[in-house]
Write a structure and sequence with these properties.
106 residues, 4 helices, elongated
Length: 106
């Protein structure tokens, strides 16, 4: 797994937090909001996350741990279980002649 330099993560996290405070102070300012969203997007790309809050949390964990611990934490996170695709039930299969067969065999 390729990870960014900690100095770059720290710099982008500081940028994100600075614009977050600015956006909270003046939420109606469209320029501030756009820059905040840009900072969040950059952090997402850097940390490989879909949500800016997740990216900020991941950046903070990455900065306070060493590389091995961070990778172990990432691998221990629960992932969505994949379901196998199955065909139609055996009883509903048709033979080449168009008749239903009880075993699904043609």
């Amino acid at each position: 797994m390729l990870l960014p330099a900690k100095t770059e993560v720290a710099r982008q996290l500081r940028r994100y937090r600075t614009w977050e405070r600015s956006m909270l102070a003046s939420p109606a300012d469209l320029r501030v909001r756009a820059t905040f969203e840009d900072a969040g997007y950059t952090l997402c790309v850097l940390m490989g996350k879909r949500c800016a809050r997740e990216a900020a949390d991941a950046a903070e964990r990455y900065l306070r741990t060493n590389l091995v611990t961070y990778l172990q934490e990432q691998n221990e996170r629960p992932r969505a279980a994949r379901t196998a695709r199955r065909g139609p039930p055996v009883a509903d299969r048709l033979s080449p002649s168009g008749r239903k067969t009880p075993s699904g065999a043609a």
